[in-house]
Amino acid sequence: MLKFLHVVGARPNFMKIAPLMDALHQAAAQRKADLEQVLVHTGQHYSREMSSLLFEQLGLPEPNINLEVGSGGHGMQTGRIMEAFERVLLEQKPDLVIVVGDVNSTIACALDAKKHHIPVAHVEAGLRSFDREMPEELNRVLTDAISDYLFTTEPVAEENLAREGVAREKIHFVGNTMIDTLLHHRENALTRDVLDQLNLRDTPYAVVTLHRPSNVDNPQILEGILVALEQISRDLKIVFPVHPRTYNQIESNGFSALLEKGNFHLIDPQGYLDFLCLVANARLVLSDSGGIQEETTVLGVPCLTLRHNTERPITIENGTNRLVGNVGTDIMAGYHEVQSREWAGRRVPEKWDGKAAGRIAAILLDSFIN
Question: Of the residues 74, 117, 172, 211, which is catalytic?
Answer without folding.
Answer: 211
